[in-house]
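User: Show me an example of a complex going from sequences to structure tokens.

Assistant: Sure. Here are the input components:
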Amino acid sequence: MIPVGTPLPEWRLTSVSPEKMKVMAAILRDPNPIHWDRRAVLQKGFGTRLINQGPINVGYVMNMLMAWAGNDAIRSITVRFTANVLEGDEVVAGGKVTAVEGNLVTCHVWLERGDGERALVGTAKVEIGRR
Amino acid sequence: MAVAVPLAEMERLVGWRFPGGRTRIPRWESFLLNDVVCGPELPEGMVHPAACFHAPLAGIGMGYAEIFALCRAESDDAIRAGEYTFQIRRPLREEVEYWVEGEIVAVERKRGARIGLFDKVVFELRMLEPGGEVAVVAVNSWLFLRSEP
């Protein structure tokens, strides 16, 4: 039995890659240049660094859950974006158990930048014991 | 003066069904997706769940621009991401042809401290395996900012 309040092992990335954003833009067929053209970022007043795609940020949180509970353990995840993640940022995905019902564990999850600001927050349900 | 996009017009979108269609995640796309999210080594054929973001939209039978026009977006800069929920009943698999269906399930006009007046449009999209079993349910909301006179 996993006690409520148990912290999940963190998942950390020391530097978000601008090259991976370009590949993701192609996968998503996302024409928004804030993910691949620094001039566009500047023109829109967002600074000088490329902005990571939201789906990549959620992917980091999913990695944290998969490392903890297994690759096919995620049953649901709800997220809300609260800040941007920029190229070169360090990010840490974390979480905490908030409820346990049989094999189904509910967790509060988040992605935090190196400066301490949370870029996304959410709730996930994972099925444990699938490893 | 009234808001340019009447609320009644937006509320009529509730229940609107997407055309639907088929989608498939090829091996190369699955590999690259796992690489860009710095994912773990996955069992053969499994797709990283981050695909739940784009895979349903890829098969819904409409592009982003058409969806934004349907929701009367005032400009590309007047759209914000809302909340995203993904129910993963079965992990997505490479090279499987999924049927995607879905509809608009809610429209709500709200006011935010930072973004002002907006319409929250909630979509539910479902990815079905060839046998008809639902693999993924995605419930996403987008916020369409409304200018006021």
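The lines above are the inputs; the final block is the predicted structure for all two components together. The first strand of chain B starts at residue 21 and ends at 24.
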